Amino acid sequence: MGSATPVDDETGLIAQLRAGDESAYEQVVRTYGGRLLAVTRRILDSDEDARDVVQDAFLNAFKSIARFEGNSKLSTWLHRIAVNAALMKLRTRKRKPEQSIETLLPAFLDDGHHEERFTSWDEPVDKAMERAETRQLVRAKIDELPEGYRTVLVLRDIEGLDTEETATMLGLSVNATKIRLHRARQALRTLLSPHLAGSAPGKAPGKAPGETRGETLS
Questions:
Q1: Residues 166-197 as b or e (16 or more Cβ within 10 Å = b)
Q2: Which of 80, 95, 92, 107 is nearest to 162 (CA)?
Q3: End-to-end C-alpha distance for the chain, whole angstroms
Q4: Strand 107-108 versus strand 114-115 pairing type
Q5: Residue 101 CB coordination number (10 Å)
Q6: Total Cβ atoms within 10 A of residue 13
Q7: Rounded Cα–Cα distance for residues 31 and 14 (Å)
Q8: How far apart are CA 205 and CA 212, in angstroms?
């Protein structure tokens, strides 16, 4: 399932889809399949499940194309369908006891200051993902996060959803989403610091990945 150049004439493509043009279906799969597979893989942590979910997402999209109102780009609409399908797949899995995140969170000394186990690494997650030399490591460490924290981090910091949309998709309150995201960023920082401390450009001490000063629960 590949990924081709973005569509120039999206309106024409949508018209072809509504007319049942099979070549339009194939073009959509070629153009957007790779991107959808990447996001569902990050949510599900399984290549097989991600492929199944993307196939289902395309089928659902093609069946409901007549109801697509064009208020967003086709790619955005497909992205939401795929993310929702991946989250539904997570909910239907046989649930395993979730690993505690507490051991990955900052420890505190008796005087209330953080106990820094490693030299600080503070580059935002999305920036680290853009750099080829760190991308694979960041992906691997995100996969090590407990499922509930991995999902909120992927949706918010990698897929770029805002806090309200992330909360809606996960069935959480906005405040609970902010807290979970903050803890996920802290845990990811703990996992990455031994490998990336001092390597990120433009370091600014005291932040977890994805945070900015004064906005630790964005």
A1: bbebbebeeeebbebbbbbbbbbbbbbbeebe
A2: 80
A3: 35
A4: antiparallel
A5: 17
A6: 17
A7: 13
A8: 11
Report the distance separating Cα 158 and Cα 150, nearest Å. Answer: 11
Q: For 10-92, give the CATH class.
A: mainly alpha
122-139 pLDDT, tens digit per residue, is: 556 666 665 666 778 888
- Name the H helices within the chain: 10-18, 22-44, 47-63, 74-92, 125-130, 132-143, 147-153, 163-170, 174-196
The second-level CATH assignment, the architecture, of 102-196 is Orthogonal Bundle (1.10)
- How is the chain split into domains, by residue range? 10-92, 102-196
Q: How far is it, in rounded angstroms, from Cα 189 to Cα 181?
A: 12
Residue-wise pLDDT tens digits, 44-86: 989 999 999 999 999 999 999 999 988 888 999 999 999 999 9
Tokens encoding 72: 């967003």
Specify the amino acid at residue 198: G
CB 82 within 8 A of CB 53: yes
State residue 136's pLDDT score. Answer: 82
Query: How many residues are given for the chain?
Result: 218
Structure tokens at 3: 């990924």
